[in-house]
Amino acid sequence: MLHITRGLVPFWDDHMIDHRFTDAVLSVNQPVKTDSVMVCDQPWDGNANDFFTILKDDGFYRMYYETWSFFDPTYTEGINVCYAESRDGIHWERPNLGMCEFRGSRDNNIIMTRIPDNIVVMKDENPACLPEHRYKAIMASTDVTGYANDDPSRPRHGLICKVSADGIHFEDYCVISQGYAYDSQNSVHWNPHAGKYYCYFRDFHSKPEIPGSTLNETSVRSILVSESEDFFHWSDPVPLDFGGAEDYPLYTNCVMAYPYDTRYYIGFPTRYVERKGWTANYDRLCGADRRKKRMELEPRLGIAVTDCVFMSSRDNVRWYRFDEACLTPGPEYAGNWVYGDCYPAIGGLIQTPSRFAGEPDELSIYVFNHHWMPEKVELIRYVYRRDGFASVKAGYQPKTLRTPAFTFEGEELLLNFRTSARGGIFLQILDEKGLPLEGFRTCEIFGDSPERIVDFDRPLSDLQGKTVRFDFTMRDAEIYAMRFR
Fold it and tell me: pLDDT tens digits, residue range 235-260?
């Protein structure tokens, strides 16, 4: 029996769908592309800026990102980490920190130089965390010798952590994991509800070739998760459990707590797609000459492309993943449809004002483009409506969404939904046997609101602790989430 406490009930998976009585369709949604919020146009930025991290921190936002260069023999400074700040998530400033030298000058926003790769920065919200360890930078390293809790019996490469009191000046701390791949944007999170840290990182596994497939997927990039109560002792990692979904390569994890209800974790993993060889379609696809140039270094640099999918979890291990892309490279031009598209920033889920006066706030995510291109890398802002990553939809013909039996806490129900002018939603609450409860059928609900109060003839509080089912009849409508309060 499901029990729902006060708070968010999203439709990002089929947890609240009884498929026996439901013919409305659960599907993923795509965000809306809006504007460019930052251009990496400084000499130290190179042309391969990636792995952006965004933290909300005491009234402002911190951004961390890597700068390096590809196909440019004059750029010999390796991988650096840069820092930016914003008050609103839209306008970003790169402070002149004077910390690190680049080509004879310290006038830049670099905070680390010549790091191994794959940096992610977290703010540790564990109440037991020491102030001098409040900010943690996670990155891959080819040699973990000398780090605290290094296991000399294990491989020398690993995932390391640097710590900081101010989020800018970092020093070496410990090893999180040893002996796996880590060639990705790995991430660590403190989950206050579980009282544990969870670390998500890259590895590979093999699978048999699929006869007739055009894809090169016998070696699969995959995501592992490890947990810890003290950040020092970590469990053996296990693969994410996608409930038997198709096994295909995921290049990043982009996992983060959902800011409106941190009981839920969401992820925007980038999906890596490598075909077996050059075909006529590549000649027609944008940027053919640039692809051929990259292939001189390695064939997959011209053949592989990437997109992004959406997934969510209630326990950090079992995940519901949509296979339809939530983010694609978009309309073709010379700088996209490449290996390096659709990498959202970790933590970059920021409440921002709507672009249109009077409309509800939006959720912004940030994706860079022009990876490995002559054009300067840009950070592009996309927006979702609140809770809007996926939803249950009905077309013009009426459809039904029925929940499994559950009990709940709360005196009021709010609905995040959208309909057309002619469309609408009716909600009938049923008893545990599936029979309608008198006084608990709504009038027709129509409009477009992230938190519409749902009215009944009787107080909803009369049903607290009792077993019920929700039966929605929908027409030209979609439901994103419910909230009990």
Answer: 999 999 999 999 999 999 999 999 99
We report the CATH number of the domain holding residue 263 as 2.115.10.20
Based on the domain organization, do 382 and 396 belong to the same domain? no
Cα–Cα distance for residue pair 287/278, rounded to 1 Å: 13
Residue 44 and residue 80 in contact, taking contact as beta carbons nearer than 8 Å: yes
- For the beta sheet containing 171-178, the strands, ordered from the edge strand earlier in sequence to the opposite edge, are 117-123, 135-141, 158-164, 171-178
CATH number for 19: 2.60.120
DSSP classification of residue 327: B
**How confident is the model over 123-180, as pLDDT tens digits?**
999 999 999 999 999 999 999 999 999 999 999 999 999 999 999 999 999 999 999 9
Q: Show the domain range for 463.
A: 2-26+391-484
The verdict on 419 and 460 lying in the same domain is yes
Q: Which tokens is 218 given?
A: 């016998």
The total number of structural domains that make up the chain:
2
7 shares its domain with 138: no
pLDDT at 72: 82
Report the pLDDT averaged over residues 339-362.
94
User: How many angstroms separate the CA atoms of 104 and 44, rounded?
Assistant: 12
Dihedral sign (CA 301, 305, 307, 312): negative
Tokens of 389: 């990553």
Pick the closest to residue 367 from 348, 391, 343, 390 (CA basis).
343
Same domain, 8 and 114: no
Q: What is the C-alpha separation between 210 and 312, in angstroms, rounded?
A: 28
The single-letter DSSP state of residue 60 is: E
Tokens 């939809």, residue located: 393
